[in-house]
Design a protein that fits this description.
The structure holds two protein chains of two kinds. Chain A is of the alpha+beta class. Chain A has two domains: 187 residues, no CATH class; 138 residues. Helix content of chain A is 55%, strand content 19%. In chain A, strands 1, 2, 3, 4, 5, 6, 7, 8, 9, 10, 11 and 12 form a twelve-stranded mixed sheet that branches. In chain A, a hairpin with a 2-residue loop joins strand 3 and strand 4. In chain B, 47% of the residues are buried. In chain B, helix 3 packs across helix 4, helix 3 runs parallel beside helix 5 and helix 5 runs parallel beside helix 6. Chain B is α/β, with parallel strands linked by helices. In chain B, 32% of the residues lie in helices and 25% in strands. In chain B, the strands form two sheets. In chain B, strands 6-7-8-3-9-10 form a six-stranded mixed sheet, with helices on both faces. In chain B, strands 2-1-4-5 form a four-stranded antiparallel sheet, covered by helices on one side. Chain B has a single domain, classed as P-loop containing nucleotide triphosphate hydrolases (Rossmann fold), CATH 3.40.50. The chains are: A alpha+beta, B alpha/beta. Chains A and B meet through helix 1, helix 11 and helix 14 of A and helix 2 and helix 3 of B.
């Protein structure tokens, strides 16, 4: 082994306190970046997952500024023939003027704010979406059945399954339409990513209320291979060109751009905070390396006296930085992977938030490790440089 | 072998200047055993640092084997120290994180000439009676043993000149006697020049030359040969 490497390694490994402190500084910096990544990227992935599962599907087909008037049966059948498509289902979005609940025939709560109403075709929707899985009770089935979102249920004074609600709509001609529904289920999702603040009814009932027979707001498409979303979108638009039908076929990232863009900025900011943490760990390495240089001043003087050049002294402390970087990176990676595995296996949640969708990002881990390793070396340059400036006679006087 | 011409060393500037050495002139031949003596603060260690190329004189020249060392840059000075000079310090100054053998081998590893170096180091350590301590870390041996390791380290590169600064200053009387005996016998055996700074002149008995320093000057009439 090169003698400078050997001395560098011995200097730091025989000072266990310094080694542990410096390595921990590097390791904790990596851990912070990893934890940030697991939590915030996991949260982002979870939101994308839930938006896909509940609202948008992998491909979201809508019409610019209007309702889809083409037959949902025809469109869904056309989509079903694409091998990557698992299922497709039409949906109709509307807003009710008000809603009130009656229990045993008595009004218990009136909500006079607009309530989002989602019309679904139950037999298709359960194949194209997992929204039905969020329902305690039953999913909508017959024409007068309704699933309340948990927040609406709360605002209505917690009516139970079997109770009735009355909803006031305005049809497309401005006429008030009052309709009674029987509650068949309550929908609740972690993080309210589902339909917690709205209600779900049968699409045919909603079409009738709105006087829009056969029309839909969107077709959600679930794929068996989500990576083919672009392909399916393009295929659809080539079959139904925008010029004719004004269709939009969007992937989840495009469809949920508004919801996701802010979160992505947040992740970038949090990553930045993590990397600032890494910079502060570099300062810790600088401090510990300066202490190392100080405690080894006499040895540096002796080495210089017996012929070591300044660059040899520099290399001793650079090798020392490499040891710190390597041990810190190894330790940080082990802790980071351990945390990632734990978060993934336990489907980690925070106080009822949605379960994190944790993915192993090996490239990200490798990048963080390399960055931490390189930073430990860079952090060693200044102390190493200071060490080279020591004159032998002065250095050997150091007790 | 070694020529010192008009060497002067001044620390500080203007009014705060301290003249540590003035008008130092002497020459040393190969194989000589020389003592530099003087009271504390007289400048003897400063002179040794100049000869050892650890510090540069303010004025004057130091020639080793005819080469003017004042013209050498830092890298060349390091190489020069490594190949031509061996150092023995008062506190042995071994690297505590290296073993006895690794300490001895260090000058050779710096030089990059490792062929047969381990065997030579073992032989030298055997000569000084430390063959059983090779793998011990330097901070795990006694002061006397450490000084013998330092002597071995100073000799491993077969330097033309061995410089020792108070080599017995930190040893008990028995260890000091052993060290003096060892230095003198190595001087005879290896025909290397030994220049030793000491304040304990009698301890070394007969030597080839004694340079007495007082207030930074060689005292007139004290550059003497004391070999019987």
């Amino acid at each position: 082994m090169d003698y400078r490497a050997q001395i560098g390694i011995r200097f730091i490994t025989r000072r266990k306190g310094s080694l542990i402190a410096a390595s921990l500084a590097v390791a904790i910096a990596i851990l912070v970046v990893q934890v940030n990544s697991v939590i915030f990227q996991g949260l982002y992935n979870a939101i994308v997952r839930d938006l896909t599962n509940y609202r948008f599907g992998h491909v979201f087909i809508s019409k610019r500024g209007d309702f889809i008037t083409r037959s949902d049966f025809m469109l869904v059948n056309w989509l079903d023939r694409i091998p990557y498509v698992q299922a497709a289902a039409p949906r109709l979005d509307y807003s009710a003027l008000s809603i009130n609940s009656t229990v045993n025939g008595q009004l218990i709560q009136d909500v006079n704010v607009p309530v989002p109403v989602l019309g679904v075709k139950p037999e298709w929707d359960v194949k194209a979406s997992t929204l039905y899985q969020t329902v305690k009770g039953q999913y909508v089935s017959y024409r007068d059945s309704i699933v309340l979102g948990a927040l609406v249920d709360r605002d209505l004074g917690y009516p139970q399954i079997g109770d009735t609600v009355k909803i006031k709509f305005k049809d497309q001609f401005g006429n008030d339409v009052l309709k009674r529904f029987v509650i068949v289920g309550i929908s609740q999702t972690a993080g309210n990513q589902g339909n917690d603040n709205g209600v779900i009814i049968n699409i045919d009932t909603l079409r009738e209320i709105m006087d829009r027979p056969g029309q839909s707001s969107e077709i959600i498409v679930r794929l068996n291979d989500p990576s083919k979303a672009d392909y399916v979108s393009e295929l659809f638009l080539s079959a139904f060109p925008s010029s004719a039908d004004k269709f939009k076929a969007q992937t989840i990232e495009q469809a949920a751009e508004v919801q996701l863009a802010g979160f992505r900025s947040g992740i970038a900011l949090i990553n930045l905070v993590g990397y600032f943490g890494m910079m502060s760990s570099a300062f810790a390495v600088v401090t510990i390396q300066m202490m190392q240089v100080s405690s080894k001043t006499r040895d540096i003087g002796v080495m210089r006296a017996i012929g070591a050049k300044r660059k040899d002294v520099l290399l001793v402390f650079i090798f020392q930085g490499m040891v710190i970087g390597a041990i810190g990176a190894g330790l940080g990676t082990a802790m980071g992977i351990g945390y990632t595995v734990y978060a993934k296996e336990t489907h980690m949640t925070f106080q009822g938030s949605l379960a994190l969708e944790v993915q192993y990002n090996w490239m990200g881990i490798a990048q963080t490790d390399i960055m931490a390793f390189v930073l430990a070396i860079i952090a060693s340059i200044y102390p190493a440089f200071k060490a080279t400036k020591l004159e032998p006679v002065e250095a050997m006087r150091f007790a | 072998m070694l020529e010192v011409h008009n060497v002067e060393k001044v620390y500080g500037e203007a009014e705060t200047a301290v003249r540590a050495l003035q008008n130092i002139n002497f020459a040393v031949k190969r194989g000589e055993f020389i003592l530099i003596v003087g009271s504390s603060g007289s400048g003897k260690s400063t002179l040794l640092n100049m000869i050892g190329l650890l510090d540069r004189p303010t004025r004057g020249q130091i020639l080793v084997d005819g080469a003017d060392t004042s013209t050498l840059d830092d890298n060349h000075l390091s190489s020069f120290r490594n190949s031509k000079l061996g150092f023995i310090f008062q506190f042995s100054n071994l690297l505590s994180d290296l073993t006895v053998l690794e300490n001895v081998l260090l000058p050779r590893r710096i030089q990059g000439t490792l062929d047969g170096a381990t065997e030579e180091a073992r032989m030298l350590l055997k000569t000084v009676g430390l063959e059983s301590q090779l793998k011990k870390f330097a901070n795990k041996i006694s002061g006397g043993q450490a000084q013998r390791v330092a002597i071995t380290r100073a000799l491993i590169n077969k330097p033309a000149i061995v410089l020792a600064d108070e080599p017995t200053g930190n040893l008990d009387s028995i260890s000091a006697e052993t060290t003096v005996h060892l230095l003198k016998s190595l001087n005879r055996k290896l025909n290397q020049t030994f220049i030793i700074v000491t304040h304990d002149r009698p301890q070394f008995g007969d030597v080839d030359k004694i340079i007495t320093i007082k207030d930074g000057r060689i005292v007139e009439g004290e550059l003497e040969a004391s070999m019987a």
